[in-house]
Design a protein that fits this description.
Layout: E1 3-9, E2 26-28, E3 31-32, H1 33-44, E4 49-54, E5 71-75, H2 80-90, E6 98-101, H3 111-123, E7 128-133, E8 138-141, E9 147-151, E10 157-166, H4 167-179, H5 187-192, E11 199-202, H6 215-227
Parallel strand pairs: 1-4, 1-6, 4-5, 7-11
Antiparallel strand pairs: 2-3, 6-10, 7-10, 8-9
The chain binds cytidine-5'-monophosphate.
Length: 228
């Protein structure tokens, strides 16, 4: 059996307000976010097969940033889940293959977290996701932005990536979500909707998703701190 990595990188990253998608902004060592993310994944899984989801009109991508020998490019879709479904339909996996999906915008992922997630995804039949227990007090707001109640946080987690599942389960989950016309923002949501419960794997707090302009400098500082 093979291990697969799907990296959705077809987003526009509009919240960054930059002149190109965030995955192409220079992060460190003259390399863009996308190159750093792929280098981290390759470091942990050098023989995995990579499926990279890119916008059909992408003008910035260069294959020089892909360290994998076995990889393919697929077109992105209008939502993240459509990009991942395109990947699942294009790849030649068998039902039992483990597929890990990782945001291109999370370049600070560590080898330790990657290996822990892979281990959990392989062991748990419903798959696994990296996640972080909520540390702040959680408020529910009304439409006016008034705090109406406090949500107990004991059972709340931030969902991170990667998230890993057997190919057949992940494909069935996302195809079902699409049939039901629900937009899921991660793979685990689609699996949960089938009545399955993926394992939450406590991950590092510095697995930042680059979203807002300040996040680029923060991610560069995290990479520098991890290197010492
Ligand atoms: O915008 P956000 O950070 O939530 O996107 C999460 C990931 O999904 C990013 O890696 C982005 O490139 C990807 N994406 C995609 N196709 C879309 C939308 C987002 O591959 N249509």
């Amino acid at each position: 059996s093979h291990s697969w990595l799907i990296v959705p990188a077809a987003g526009q990253g509009r919240r960054m307000g930059a002149d190109k998608p965030k995955q192409y902004l220079t992060l460190a060592d003259g390399q863009p976010v996308l190159a750093h993310t792929l280098a981290r994944l390759h470091g942990a899984f050098p023989s995995a097969r990579l499926v990279l989801c890119l916008d059909a009109d992408d003008r910035w991508f260069s294959p020089q940033w892909v360290p994998f020998t076995n990889w393919q490019r697929v077109a992105g879709g209008s939502e993240r889940m459509d990009s991942v479904l395109n990947a699942l339909h294009a790849m030649t996996a068998t039902d039992d293959d483990v597929v890990m999906v990782h945001d291109v915008a999370r370049p600070c992922i560590t080898q330790g977290d990657l290996l822990a997630l892979y281990q959990a995804a392989t062991t748990n039949p419903a798959g696994a996701l990296l996640a972080m227990p909520v540390a702040d007090t959680m408020k529910r707001a009304d439409d006016q932005g008034l705090s109406t109640r406090t949500e107990p946080r004991e059972h709340l987690w931030h969902a991170l990536t990667p998230q890993g599942f057997r190919y057949a389960l992940l494909r069935r989950a996302l195809e079902t979500a699409r049939q039901r016309q629900t937009v899921v923002t991660d793979e685990a949501s689609a699996v949960e909707a089938l009545g399955e419960s993926p394992l939450l794997v406590s991950g590092r707090r510095d697995n930042l998703k680059i979203t807002h302009p300040d996040d680029l400098a923060l991610a560069a500082a995290i990479l520098a701190a991890q290197a010492v």
